[in-house]
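Re-run with default settings, no changes from the original entry. Doing this only to confirm the output is reproducible before filing.
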Amino acid sequence: MKLPRSSYYYKKQGLLPEDQTLVSRIEEITEEFPKAGYRKVTRQLHREAVPVNHKKVHRIMREKGLLVTKTKQFVKTTDSNHSYPIYPNLIKALQVTNLNQVWVADITYIRIAVGFVYLAVILDLCSRKAIGYAISRTIDTSLSLSALRMAIQNRNPPAGVIHHSDRGVQYAAHEYIDELKGHGFQISMSRKGNPYDNAFAESFMKTIKTEEVYLWEYRTLDDVLQRLPYFIEQVYNQKRLHASLDYVPPAEYEAKLINLNQKAPCLIALN
């Protein structure tokens, strides 16, 4: 009986010659994106015109010990115990169909040798692209304002964009709210104690932690300032494949939408 090829790909004497190049490329991809699963690696190979199916990629990654393992969740940085006004959740049940329709904001911490560094980010919900960010040793309104102002400078948004965040004091403070109102934003906030209301921003922060921060073990603020902007701008925005964007990077997805002048491709239904 003739055995299927899958039964003899990996023998003790080594790989078939034509598979050596494939294995090397898979190892290169997972070295650049250590938390990429086998499906994402497969899609990257397809983008490079490599004819391979996901089962073979899974088999290779399993044999080489490259399959992703789950990591623990990170700690919240939200302080919603304040006296500032709270705004309703405007994105619940909303259908997102275009760029600059909804921006989501969040803050996370990065542990260093002594203390913490804080990262504030603004994402365009349609493309998941990071359009503004700021890094600081202090978690205050100036941190969130710096990220917002960077996003405004990068996008020059029209009036009416929904800005969604948690209820943290950094986003509810008068100075931040005044900045939003001054640029014509609609203000939206999550329900108290419900991280699912800002799940897309939370997901981005998890990506930052698992694919960059935990791997490099930053020791100082300078380490963070030198490495993290590169990851956000050059890796996450430009190279990292996003499953919900049909496995293309956020910047490429945005370019397609702009070139085609289409809205429907980024249809997102929020529960």
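The first strand starts at residue 95 and ends at 96. The longest helix spans residues 199-216.
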